[in-house]
């Protein structure tokens, strides 16, 4: 075999690893290493793996897992690592597939979904937070309003950069360099309209303008960064805000208006905006584009029908 051919073949696993998103690859590699550690301790081959050994490993995970997630993650990781190395996938074997299916049944738990955010709650938050003079309050209020109106994930919100925001007379455009379902990193524009006069300064566009001005933000910096204190009590936005910090600040804000923070998560902004848009009769294709969903099926899982919508079917039968 020629040296050039050998070197190209040696590069294949590295190239093929780019077939998944970086975070997915990192997760798969960590999960596969845990399988390797166990397999080595049992004296069995890890790659290519014997389906019987993989099934035994899944049973081991099943015994200590609270949900099917660790079992499913192991199957996905082991399957993918075998695929990029050009060897037979042990997870395609019936014994592994059925063991995984059994884990899903044995460890199934009712889904405790968070409630969608509503405009009513946002209004109460605005009334409570907008006049305190606190940069932290203005920031979380803006983040929630933009997340709701833009149908954005936390990953989207954390990648909103100041120099990639364009303000127009009647809307704001946010350019997201990358998005969960933007596999080839083409980027995605999200357009958020200015709200009516009746909504006043609760408008997400007006709040964003106010945040950038008061925080004195410019250039390629996150719009929703960490708020840190400096001398004389002045606060500035610096660096990126973590998911846990954003969640913590949002929960604290909800408590201040008498809401149970356990009922909401950062994804409540996305599901709340999507549910409201659907109830208002906005075509699914436009909602799907705004939220960046890959499929209508995925998008519709975020919708929560109102009581009038649920009653519409039986009501129509009486007419």
Detailed description of the structure:
- The longest helix has 21 residues, at 22-42.
- Helix 4 runs antiparallel to helix 5.
- The strands form two sheets. The chain has a three-stranded antiparallel sheet with strand order 1-2-3, with helices on one face. A two-stranded antiparallel sheet has the order 4-5.
- The protein is built from 14 helices and five strands.
- With 319 residues, it is mainly alpha-helical.
- A hairpin with a 5-residue loop joins strand 4 (226-229) and strand 5.
**Coarse morphology:** globular
The percentage helix is 40-55%
Counted by DSSP, the helix tally is: 14
Gyration radius, in Å: 24 Å
Distance between the termini: 78 Å
pLDDT average, as an integer?
86
Strand order of the largest sheet: 1-2-3
Query: Which segments are poorly predicted (pLDDT under 50) over 5 or more consecutive residues?
Result: none
Fraction in beta strands: 5-15%
Structural class: mainly alpha
Topology:
Blueprint: H1 3-16, H2 22-42, H3 51-64, H4 69-84, H5 94-106, H6 119-129, H7 135-150, H8 154-157, E1 165-167, E2 171-176, E3 188-193, H9 204-215, E4 226-229, E5 235-238, H10 243-256, H11 267-279, H12 284-291, H13 296-300, H14 307-318
Antiparallel strand pairs: 1-2, 2-3, 4-5
Helix pairs in contact: 2-4, 3-4, 3-5, 4-5, 6-7, 7-9, 7-10, 7-11
């Amino acid at each position: 075999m020629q040296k050039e051919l050998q070197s190209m073949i040696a590069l294949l696993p590295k190239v093929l690893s780019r077939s998944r998103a970086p975070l997915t690859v990192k997760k798969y590699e960590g999960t596969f290493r845990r399988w390797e550690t166990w397999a080595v301790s049992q004296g069995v081959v890890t790659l290519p793996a014997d389906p019987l050994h993989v099934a035994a490993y899944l049973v081991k995970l099943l015994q200590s897992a609270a949900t099917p997630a660790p079992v499913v993650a192991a199957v996905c990781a082991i399957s993918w690592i075998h695929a990029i190395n050009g060897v037979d996938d042990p997870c395609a074997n019936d014994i592994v597939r059925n063991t995984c299916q059994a884990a899903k049944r044995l460890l199934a738990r009712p889904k405790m979904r968070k409630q969608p955010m509503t405009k009513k709650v946002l209004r109460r938050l605005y009334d409570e937070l907008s006049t305190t003079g606190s940069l932290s309050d203005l920031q979380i209020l803006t983040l929630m309003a933009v997340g709701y109106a833009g149908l954005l994930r936390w990953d989207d919100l954390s990648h909103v950069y100041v120099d990639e925001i364009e303000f127009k007379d009647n809307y704001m455009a946010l350019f997201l360099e990358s998005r969960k379902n933007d596999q080839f990193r083409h980027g995605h524009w999200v357009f958020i309209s200015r709200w009516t006069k009746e909504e006043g300064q609760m408008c997400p566009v007006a709040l964003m303008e106010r945040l950038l001005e008061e925080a004195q933000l410019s250039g390629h910096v996150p719009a929703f960064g960490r708020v840190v204190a400096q001398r004389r009590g002045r606060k500035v936005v610096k660096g990126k805000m973590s998911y846990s910090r954003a969640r913590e600040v949002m929960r604290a804000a909800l408590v201040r208006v008498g809401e149970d923070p356990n009922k909401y998560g950062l994804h409540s902004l996305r599901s709340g905006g999507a549910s409201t848009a659907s109830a208002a009769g906005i075509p699914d294709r436009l909602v799907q584009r705004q939220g960046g969903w890959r499929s209508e099926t995925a998008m519709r899982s975020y919708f929560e029908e109102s009581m009038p919508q649920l009653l519409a079917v039986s009501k129509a039968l009486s007419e």
